[in-house]
């Protein structure tokens, strides 16, 4: 697999606070990659930098060989933020139609794409409901549907399953694996260990540093632990490791 995302020497400060330090990371094409870390460790800041929403204080991001921010590269990225950026006063279908238009989905493909993404997130029956009548979990699913509309090559999901029940969570993970099989590179941020287990490779983030990087099995092996949680604690004791 060739290198698809390249982060070099990323550092990010807000006023006097340094929230990311010395981030070097390479993610191959087609990987399901997890950024695992506790609240405040810098996951959202890092994904915002990756997709060009935030210019890092220093360092560079290359996606598919293009230096970010690049409009061209951004057109192939689907991003699901932590808070839903949707229109409550519109129905789900109207929301999807609007975003399909913004993302430049060709008019003759729009109907098919909307019904496809609605199926993935299990909202087909609720497409005519206004979002003000949606539950929190339904809105999360809608946000995921929006991120999938333009069939992005790179999908970045910031805590995608927060507020989603276990049955649908499992079904979303099955769909992510299916998208990956079709060639999509996927980056997921999470602080849930059982979700991290499903990733091909993980970067463990703590206090703005990558404290370890590798597959779930490699991380457990290297730390001689049985669970990712224990591995995280092990690497957190000051050992920065590339496995
Ligand atoms: N625009 C900003 N201005 C100032 N500080 C910020 C800004 N954005 C993020 N931070 C700070 O950067 C740190 C990392 O935040 P970030 O949201 O990246 O963490 P996170 O790992 O995604 O957390 P969570 O899991 O709770 O979403 C926090 O201390 C946060 O307060």
Automatic annotation (TrEMBL):
Single annotated GO MF: ATP binding
SUPFAM superfamilies xref list: P-loop containing nucleoside triphosphate hydrolases
Official protein name in the record: ABC transporter ATP-binding protein
Domain of life: Bacteria
Protein's organism: Lentibacillus populi
Keywords assigned: ATP-binding, Nucleotide-binding
SMART domains recorded: AAA
PROSITE patterns, per database record: ABC_TRANSPORTER_1 (PS00211), ABC_TRANSPORTER_2 (PS50893)
Pfam families per the UniProt record, alphabetical: ABC_tran (PF00005)
Database matches in InterPro entries: AAA+_ATPase, ABC_transporter-like_ATP-bd, ABC_transporter-like_CS, P-loop_NTPase
């Amino acid at each position: 697999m060739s290198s698809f995302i390249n982060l070099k020497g990323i550092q990010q400060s807000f006023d006097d606070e340094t929230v990311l330090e010395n981030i070097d990371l390479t993610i191959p094409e087609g990987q399901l990659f997890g950024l695992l870390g506790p609240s405040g460790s810098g996951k959202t800041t890092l994904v915002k930098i990756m997709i060009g929403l935030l210019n890092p204080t220093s360092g560079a991001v290359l996606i598919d060989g293009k230096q970010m921010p690049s409009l061209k590269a951004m057109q192939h990225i689907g991003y699901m933020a932590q808070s839903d950026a949707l229109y409550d006063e519109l129905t789900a279908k109207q929301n999807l139609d609007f975003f399909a238009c913004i993302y430049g989905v060709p008019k003759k493909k729009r109907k098919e794409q909307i019904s496809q993404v609605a199926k993935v997130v299990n909202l087909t029956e609720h497409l005519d409901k206004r979002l003000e009548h949606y539950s929190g979990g339904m809105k999360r699913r809608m946000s995921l549907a929006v991120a999938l509309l333009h069939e992005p090559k790179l999908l970045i999901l910031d805590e995608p399953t927060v507020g989603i029940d276990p049955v649908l969570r499992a079904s979303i993970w099955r769909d992510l694996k299916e998208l990956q099989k079709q060639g999509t590179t996927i980056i997921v941020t999470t602080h849930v260990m059982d979700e991290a287990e499903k990733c091909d490779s993980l970067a463990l983030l703590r206090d703005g540093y990558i404290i370890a990087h590798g597959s779930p099995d490699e991380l457990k092996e290297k730390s001689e632990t049985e669970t990712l949680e224990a591995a995280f604690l092990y690497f957190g004791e000051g050992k920065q490791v590339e496995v």
